[in-house]
TrEMBL record:
Job description of the protein: Site-specific tyrosine recombinase, which acts by catalyzing the cutting and rejoining of the recombining DNA molecules. The XerC-XerD complex is essential to convert dimers of the bacterial chromosome into monomers to permit their segregation at cell division. It also contributes to the segregational stability of plasmids.
Cellular component annotations (GO), alphabetically ordered: cytoplasm
Protein's GO biological process: cell division; chromosome segregation; DNA transposition
Name listed for the protein in its UniProt record: Tyrosine recombinase XerC
Native organism taxonomy: Bacteria, Pseudomonadati, Pseudomonadota, Betaproteobacteria, Burkholderiales
Subunit-structure text: Forms a cyclic heterotetrameric complex composed of two molecules of XerC and two molecules of XerD.
Domain Core-binding (CB): 10-95
Subcellular location: Cytoplasm
Domain Tyr recombinase: residue ranges: 116-315
Active site per database record: R158, K193, H267, R270, H293, Y302 (o-(3'-phospho-dna)-tyrosine intermediate)
Keyword Transmembrane: no
Sequence similarity: Belongs to the 'phage' integrase family. XerC subfamily.
Length: 328
């Protein structure tokens, strides 16, 4: 939310007015964008007045100081970046007009927003979802959805990788960048980001869920080899490959049926796979390979999750973790 100008603002700088007219006419900015530019330049003028420096004599050190003030005042890094973009445009134009020798905003960047930690389920909730049996549901849908949960949590697949699996490897499967399951070898072969292929172990629970699903998969469509039956491992009720969006919706519904308080999405199960594996093994390099991360720094976010888990255990169990009330 933009800060409103003060009740008695100083007269606008004539160069600011010229610039706003320039962007209005030359760039044909939308009225809303022009209003935001105006507010941002008013804010800059207020900052300049606060340090007693004319607007066109501001230096990079002043801009950095203004950024620090906005950040300490609670403005987000994204919000500051948008304001800086407006200021940068003004000084770029001023430079072209010969009004300033250099752009003081040119090399100033907004503070980086902290990366949010991936949301992961607790082990109990993840197992509860994986073991959930909706006995009253259509057996075909139940077998399919149970197998999808097992692969997402048990193998750490991305939703696109799951949707791209074929029921049986064929000449077209690998050529078209799709994956497949080798139940005999206990492996899932998938194509991740950048069409990079990787193999992931398929555990006993996932293998059993897949066998149950495969026994039912083609039944409603006339059996395996039926004309027009999609090669996809996971099918919709019309026999076409299940989309990523459909998988999201089915998983959300299943997590609610299982009684989880948090609606679950596929990437949450991938995060759960990674964090639970790391908590048990501590092998960051192995988790990187299983997730298909090209850079281990991408995987290192899970060490933060792991530390949170360890901190909770420490706080709950260690006699010296918390001082007694009133202790010095």
């Amino acid at each position: 939310m933009r800060t409103a100008p003060s009740a008695s603002p100083a007269a606008p700088d004539p160069q600011v007015l010229r610039y706003l007219e320039h962007v209005r006419v030359e760039k044909r900015l939308a009225a809303r964008t022009l209003t935001l530019y105006t507010l941002d330049l008013e804010k800059l003028a207020q900052f300049a007045a606060g340090v007693g420096v004319p607007l066109l004599q501001l230096q990079t050190a002043h801009i950095r100081r203004f950024v620090a003030q906005m950040h300490s005042g609670g403005r987000s890094g994204r919000g500051i970046a948008l304001i800086l973009s407006g200021w940068r445009g003004f000084f770029t134009w001023s430079g072209r007009q010969g009004l300033v020798p250099h752009n003081p905003v040119q090399d100033v960047r907004a503070p980086k927003a902290p990366k949010p930690l991936p949301k992961a389920l607790g082990v109990d909730d993840a197992v509860r979802l994986a073991e959930f049996d909706n006995s009253g549901a259509d057996p075909w849908l139940e077998a399919r959805d149970a197998a999808m949960v097992e692969l997402l949590y048990g193998c750490g697949l991305r939703v696109g990788e799951l949707a791209g699996l074929d029921a049986v490897a064929s000449a077209d499967t690998e050529r078209q960048g799709r994956g497949w399951i080798d139940l005999q070898a206990g492996e899932a072969h998938v194509f991740g980001k950048g069409s990079k292929r990787r193999s992931v172990p398929v555990g006993q629970s996932a293998a059993q869920a897949l066998k149950t699903w495969l026994a039912l998969r083609a039944g409603p469509f006339g059996g395996e080899g039926a004309p027009g039956l999609d090669a996809a491992l996971f099918l919709g009720q019309r026999g076409a490959r299940l989309t990523a969006q459909s998988i999201w919706l089915r998983l959300r519904q299943r997590s609610q049926q299982a009684g989880l308080t948090t609606p679950v999405h596929p990437h949450m199960l991938r995060h759960s796979f990674a964090s639970h594996l790391l908590q048990s093994s501590g092998d960051l390099r192995a988790v990187q390979e299983l997730l298909g991360h090209a850079n281990i720094t991408t995987t290192q976010v899970y060490t933060r999750l792991d530390f949170q888990h360890l901190a909770k255990v420490y706080d709950a169990a260690h006699p010296r973790a918390k001082r007694k009330p009133g202790s010095a």
